[in-house]
Amino acid sequence: MSISTEGDSVAVIDSNHSGGTTEALLERGRALSLPLLRAAVDRLAPPMDTVAAYHFGWIDALGNPADGDGGKAVRPALALISAEAAGAPPEAGVPGAVAVELVHNFSLLHDDLMDGDEQRRHRDTVWKVHGPAQAILVGDALFALANEVLLELGTAEAGRATRRLTTATRKLIDGQAQDISFEGRERVTVRECLEMEGNKTGALLACACSIGAVLGGADDATADALETYGYHLGLAFQAVDDLLGIWGEPAVTGKQTWSDLRQRKKSLPVCAALAAGGPASDRLAEVLAADAKATGTENPEADDAFSEEEFATRAALIEESGGREWTTQEARRQHATALAALTGVAMPQAVRNQLTELADFVVVRRR
């Protein structure tokens, strides 16, 4: 494999695995989990059922049936593969896949509101269409549904899976709290940023990679190894997200240009650039310090004063300081660490290949 940061390429390229296989795995995850996911959402009282259906892309803002972008479905795919890693059929992992997807979307609904994001998956976010109150309520409801889907199985494995899911959810919330607190600080260390991203993204992806195995009867050692794979895969996933949050193409990502810079996020490229030292790093620190003063609580409308050129200048300073290259290499390091965690786990070679395939996909995606 090799790394490129030219143009829109942001991570590992020249993979030895077939992209066609990846799409098949993602589609299988969607197909097997969708009936149970829709059945869970149908339990919600109106209008929450409709609001959730809009969020998942099943209907449009007027309530008409739609074939919207429901997301990449990486987590459901991983949950099904983890069941196979334990020697169980993929169907054994479906409740885990749905539970993780419900928690993931609970976090998206709340994050969009807290971050002020108006676009997700190429259309208006739930809070923009249905209001902040519905975004909060539906997010809470999805979290409750996630636990219901698992616990109603009534098995010892379901109890073990639920414990892993609730722990991952608590870490996810910790990560979101850390992320928000970082926005008001002039500097955040790379170590702090990695800890936050390990909580916000790594924990739930780690859960996805172990929950199917737990439901399939795996012992804790196997589940823990799969969880370690997922945790580092989550860090690789987030490193790529951080690159796309600054340099991603809006037509592909479905978000605004320089979206993370607009929100003053202390993402990995920013933290790495500030830690690098040198003229560009020092200039970036000065600019961000001035931004923090200009966009404080006393002047919440100041964001409107920034031009596209100014955001482009910030992105250029981050790149000149080495933040883009460092983050690209970090995605590769985390990718390698994830795969290394699978070394001692006994599983069919075909399943091992699938986990490698999805790891490669995570770091070559453009959205």
UniProtKB/TrEMBL annotation:
Keywords: Magnesium, Metal-binding, Transferase. It is an enzyme of class 2 (transferase). Transmembrane segments: none annotated. The keyword Cell wall biogenesis/degradation does not apply. GO terms for biological process: isoprenoid biosynthetic process. InterPro entries: Isoprenoid_synthase_dom_sf, Polyprenyl_synt, Polyprenyl_synt_CS. Its EC number is 2.5.1.10. One of its GO terms (molecular function) is (2E,6E)-farnesyl diphosphate synthase activity. The keyword Magnesium applies. Belongs to the FPP/GGPP synthase family. This is (2E,6E)-farnesyl diphosphate synthase. It comes from Streptomyces smaragdinus. The lineage of its organism: Bacteria, Bacillati, Actinomycetota, Actinomycetes, Kitasatosporales.
